[in-house]
Amino acid sequence: MTGSTLARWLRPLLATAASLAIVFGAAAQNGYPDKPIKFVVPYPPGGGTDVIARIVQGKFQQLLGQPVVIDNRGGGGGSLGTDIAAKSLPDGYTVLFTLSSHTINPAIYPKLPFDTLKDFEPIGTVASLPQILVAHPAFPASTVAELIKVAKERPGFVQFASVGNGSPGHLAGELFNIRTGADIVHVPYRGGGPAIADLLAGHVQLSFMTVLEASGHIKTGKLRALAVTGAKRDPLMPEVPTVAEAGVPGYESG
Questions:
Q1: Which of 28, 152, 201, 242 gives 20 to 30 Å between its CA and that of 117?
Q2: pTM surpassing 0.85?
Q3: What does residue 72 show for φ and ψ, rounded to 5 degrees?
Q4: Could you tell me the pLDDT band of residue 2, with boundaries at 50, 70 and 90?
Q5: Are 96 and 66 in contact (CB under 8 A)?
Q6: How far is residue 107's CA from residue 97's CA, in Å, rounded to a whole number?
Q7: Which residues contact 127 (CB under 8 A, 6 or more apart)?
Q8: Packing angle between helix 48-64 and helix 192-201, nearest 10 degrees?
């Protein structure tokens, strides 16, 4: 990722960090914060959520004048780290830094050891990132149409990685199956880092991941971009069509 490209990602994230710091700053009159703040990231290092947390981490440290510690606790589609955050002291010094699977997990894991609504107080949305469908270069499909053909000819053969059950990438893949009638098989991982590692090694063929995670690997030829999942093309990769443009009308996932 080039410096100018990274700057385009950073600007909205840092602006959000500043606005969230104002929310925290409202408690400054009572001496908060007067010790380090912990970001519990319920995924391993290297994935999109972890990358964004680390971008925001530095700005928070500047604005709040206290260290911000990243605590990666992957597993269970984010539920293991979330449980750790839920059981922490409700003093404002432990912050869950997670993604939309937080609201989906109750439908997938009916016996979660925490209450998603009662045990957490939302602070704010940090980022909304487009996803991109990528393939290992050895995979015999360069377009969405070719992918659908391979998946229909060999049901259950094509596998796609995600950061876990209920994650945006998981839902994007299942929506792809519904819209196309294909049969690509979901392989959940404990986070983006392990998922990307196995995709780069060719252990799985596909993944729906954020453009932030994928762009560097696409530029170096380690991954092949097939389509973006949003309603519009991504300005960082204008040459990559949307899934809808590539032949799946009505498809949109973010």
A1: 28
A2: no
A3: -80, 120
A4: very low
A5: no
A6: 20
A7: 12, 13, 16, 52
A8: 140
Residue in the structure block whose two tokens are 């839902």? 171
Q: Looking at the DSSP assignment, which residues form a beta bridge with residue 227? A: 133
Residue tagged 């209450």 (tokens) = 115
Cis peptide before 130 (omega within 30 of 0): no
How large is the average pLDDT for residues 180-198?
92
pLDDT tens digit string along 103-132? 888 888 888 999 998 999 888 888 877 799
For residue 253, give the amino acid letter: S
Q: Give the helix ranges, DSSP H, for 34-185.
A: 48-64, 79-86, 101-108, 144-153, 168-180
pLDDT at 157: 94
Query: Alpha carbon 60 to chain centroid distance?
Result: 21
pLDDT tens for each residue of 195-242: 999 999 999 999 999 888 898 999 999 999 999 999 999 988 999 999
Total residues belonging to the chain: 254
